[in-house]
Automatic annotation (TrEMBL):
It comes from the Archaea. This is LWR-salt protein.
Length: 121
């Protein structure tokens, strides 16, 4: 299984005693998705809403901690996944629909990921 949450981030350098020009950069960040049903698999539930970052200040801090820089902007791009991971994610969601206050797996996926799921073979 192979999947990652993809974000577009902008970060700023704050060099000590030096000047950087430019001091702001943009990049794409891929965070590996945990295997469904294991610790961390609810990342989409905790961080996303309708295919967008649910709480941008929190996401900027989280991504900044992961990157070791001050993140000044963050946006969610997609869950990039293979079919095996998506099938396992759907099965894990189906096994606990009440957790998501939803009637179907599709409703859950849309509620948190919007249309931002990109399946790669």
């Amino acid at each position: 299984m192979n999947a990652a949450y993809v974000f577009r981030v902008a970060f700023r350098l704050d060099p000590d005693g030096a000047r950087a020009d430019p001091d702001r950069f943009e990049t794409t960040v891929e965070l590996p998705a945990a295997e469904p049903g294991t610790e961390g698999w609810l990342f989409f539930h905790d961080r996303l809403w309708r295919g967008e970052v649910g709480d941008e200040p929190s996401a900027r801090r989280f991504l900044g901690d992961r990157l070791g820089v001050e993140v000044v902007a963050a946006s969610f791009r997609e869950l990039r996944t293979d079919r095996e991971h998506l099938d396992a994610l759907e099965a894990a969601i189906a096994a606990d629909l009440d957790r998501f206050n939803a009637d179907s797996v599709d409703e859950v996926l849309h509620k948190y990921l919007g249309s931002s799921i990109h399946v790669r073979e």
